[in-house]
Amino acid sequence: MTKLNASETKTAFATRVGLTKGRISQLVAEGLPVRPDGQIDVAEGLAWIEDNLDPSRRNKGGAFAAPASPARVSTTLAEAKRLHEIVKVQRAKLAFEREQGQLVETLAATRTVFARARAERDAHMAWVQRTAPLLAAEVGADPRATFAALDRMMREHLEHLADMPLGSFGDGA
Question: Domain of life of the organism in this record (predicted)?
Answer without folding.
Answer: Bacteria
